[in-house]
């Protein structure tokens, strides 16, 4: 009887372990993998890994694209890499400055990885680090333990870089501020694969934050697609896709904000009136998180357009 009780208790403990959160590598090209995180909110269960990451296996080691939102999250990413290769993670590239793009840096640096980021990305990381850690604390609780900020020690001052890591050409491009200032993209010219970071969201609604720049985001998006012509995109959020889907779920939405909300702001239509008029726009209802984000996106875009702060590049 006692023994059965003990066994029962054991199973109770094992059950949550069996469903522990993990990321499953999705092969997108030879030696190139995407790690597709959930499209919902940051939660304790998902370690704040509600975004996409990726890695490239080279003869000399692994190149990781984005390091997760915490030390524990970094270890979840590492476990996923380990299902594919035993090679050391030698390089970590940060495509952006939002928590899940880089707060796992310290863990990987502590295990010998070199941190790589553009200077303009690091500047925003420095600006937001405290705020992002404070925001994560009530969500990740003990799972934030041990997380230390760690910036790339020699950030790249240019707007782009053509690197060769482990013999593989890997480019880093900044085409304009987007979700956050300094958002960059990681481009694999040989494979035609683009890790877009937070410049591209598919399946779910993108978020316009007070410091996002709708106009510059749109032009950066257009420039990236026209210049790089990716065959495959690993978006910042959502499933692996082609350029047409990225256009549909991100490009068209940004163009819609510029096409509808910008004239409203310029014609003094009024913030509340505009939000009411467009907040039920059925065209975007198919995107996950529509209810949570669309209204706020209109609101913040309006304010930006009103103040001429969208960073829009004049179009020919
Ligand atoms: Zn993100």
Describe the protein:
This protein has 316 residues and is an alpha/beta fold. The chain is 40% helix and 19% strand. It has helices at residues 2-18, 71-82, 99-102, 105-110, 119-140, 214-228, 243-266, 271-278, 290-306; strands spanning 25-29, 32-36, 52-58, 61-65, 89-93, 114-116, 160-165, 168-173, 185-188, 193-201, 232-237. The strands form two sheets. A six-stranded mixed beta sheet has the order 1-2-3-4-5-6. It has a five-stranded mixed beta sheet with strand order 7-8-9-10-11, covered by helices on one side. α2 (71-82) links the parallel β4 (61-65) and β5 (89-93). Bound molecules: zinc ion. The site of zinc ion has 6 residues, from β11. The site of zinc ion (ZN) has 6 residues, from β11.
Write the SSE topology.
Layout: H1 2-18, E1 25-29, E2 32-36, E3 52-58, E4 61-65, H2 71-82, E5 89-93, H3 99-102, H4 105-110, E6 114-116, H5 119-140, E7 160-165, E8 168-173, E9 185-188, E10 193-201, H6 214-228, E11 232-237, H7 243-266, H8 271-278, H9 290-306
Parallel strand pairs: 4-5, 5-6, 10-11
Antiparallel strand pairs: 1-2, 2-3, 3-4, 7-8, 8-9, 9-10
Bound molecules: zinc ion.
Zinc ion binds next to strand 11.
CATH architect. name: 4-Layer Sandwich
CATH superfamily: Ribonuclease Z/Hydroxyacylglutathione hydrolase-like
Distinct small-molecule ligands in the complex: zinc ion
- Provide the low-confidence segments as ranges: none
The CA-CA distance between the termini, in Å, is 81 Å
Give the biggest beta sheet: 6 strands, mixed
């Amino acid at each position: 009887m006692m023994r059965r009780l003990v066994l029962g208790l054991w199973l109770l403990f094992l059950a949550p372990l069996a469903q522990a959160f993990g990321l499953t590598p999705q092969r997108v090209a030879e030696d190139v993998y995407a790690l597709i995180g959930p499209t919902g909110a940051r939660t304790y269960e998902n370690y704040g890994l509600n975004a996409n990451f990726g890695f490239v296996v080279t003869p000399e080691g692994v190149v990781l694209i984005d390091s997760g939102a915490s030390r524990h999250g970094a270890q979840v990413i590492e476990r996923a890499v380990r299902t594919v290769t035993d090679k050391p993670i030698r390089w970590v590239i940060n495509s952006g400055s939002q928590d899940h793009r880089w707060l796992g840096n310290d863990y990987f640096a502590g295990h010998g990885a070199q941190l790589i980021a553009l200077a303009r990305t690091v500047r925003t990381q420095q600006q937001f680090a405290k705020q992002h850690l404070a925001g994560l604390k009530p969500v990740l609780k003990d799972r934030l333990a041990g997380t230390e900020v760690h910036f790339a020690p020699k950030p790249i001052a240019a707007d782009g870089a053509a690197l060769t890591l482990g013999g593989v050409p890997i480019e880093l491009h900044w085409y304009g501020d987007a979700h956050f200032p300094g958002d960059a993209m990681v481009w694999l010219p040989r494979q035609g694969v683009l890790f877009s970071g937070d410049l591209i969201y598919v399946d779910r609604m993108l978020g316009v934050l007070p410091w996002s720049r709708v106009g510059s985001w749109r032009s950066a998006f257009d420039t990236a697609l026209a210049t790089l012509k990716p065959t495959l995109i690993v978006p910042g959020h959502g499933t692996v896709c082609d350029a047409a889907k990225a256009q549909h779920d991100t490009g068209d939405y940004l163009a819609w904000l510029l096409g509808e909300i910008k004239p409203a702001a310029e014609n003094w239509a009024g913030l509340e009136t505009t939000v009411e008029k467009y907040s039920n726009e059925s065209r975007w209802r198919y995107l996950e998180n529509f209810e949570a984000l669309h209204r706020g996106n209109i609101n913040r875009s309006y304010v930006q357009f009103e103040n001429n702060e969208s960073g829009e590049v004049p179009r020919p």
